[in-house]
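Supplementary notes (optional reading)

For those who missed the lab, this is the record we used. Protein: Nucleotide-diphospho-sugar transferase domain-containing protein. Length: 368 residues.
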Amino acid sequence: MRFTDSLATPVKKTRHQLLYLIYGNQDVYRREAKFSILTALSHAKNGKLPSIRILTDRPQDYAGWPVETVMLTQETLTLWQGENGYHHRRKACAIAAGLQHAEKTLFVDTDTLFTSDPNLIFNQIQPQHYLMDRFEYDWQDVCERPDYVKLGGCLQAHGVSADNGFKLYNSGLCGVTDRDSALFEESITLIDEWTRDGFDIHTIEQIALSFAMRDKPVHEAKKYIYHYFAEKRFFHAMQAYFFSQHGERFSQELVELCQDVPRVKPFPSAWQRLKIKWKLRNQSGALRKVGRDLLYGSAAPDHPYYTACRHEWWECASREILRWDKAQQKKLLETHQNAWPPQLPKPEKPEDERIIMKYLKKRVEAAS
């Protein structure tokens, strides 16, 4: 297969492998990958762990880590992106290249945390029985959305309609065997077909894979992992704090320390959330959402990792405010010397009033 031929590093076949794809020099994605690996190591029982392989153009970033790096040249990355400029095509090509080098492959997006022993996941992977992150929706649920119309036309050529569609899965985690080359050949062919004249949605890669898996048994892996794709900013802030405190040099101590980092988006306590709900009982709509996010950030528990990302709640509020018209923004933010707006209940920490207002005004001014 042409994708395996493009790997620059010889790879020995193994029984099980965790497979990652990461390229470019952005710190945030390197930290994602390393933290994901730490969570896998922290849950491994009796020291038993599958091979961990990283397909990357920067193997030096993982020196000293218990991983095997496979060098990706720029030529390979260009080949994998294809002629239509769809960069998620590289993911399908990476799995196609990697699955030849293990009996079972578990491809993992870097924004994935392991919450159980990875070996339990491999037990779920069998020939012609696939494992995906989670079920997201049926084709009939989205086929009439404006951004899916073009793809719907492509699917009609394959006999697919709203009445005889298929299930669509998130491919943040994908478990396959070395017998599944044809599955990815089909997926990549579909990706090229569906992106030939441009594309309106960025998830074509996982839709193509879901279509190729139609009528086959597919199981969800969400009870073993947490894929935080929709909450990246919170986890990025916590991971940046973690590595700033402990460094990126691998050690067993680093594996143990990673267990101190929350595995879920940080929320105030149930009691605090109830109090905030009561405070906002007279508000509605967008103003209520903004108030909730501002107060949630201020009510973060006294914990270093919660503190590190509380401003992300305020960022959520600022993004909502930026959707408002100028008059609405002015009504909320035009206060004297960053005083708290009278239409919102105050945060419990008085010092947060000016901090939050200064943050919001700066974000709105920057957007203007």
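If you only remember one thing from this example: The chain has a mean pLDDT of 93.
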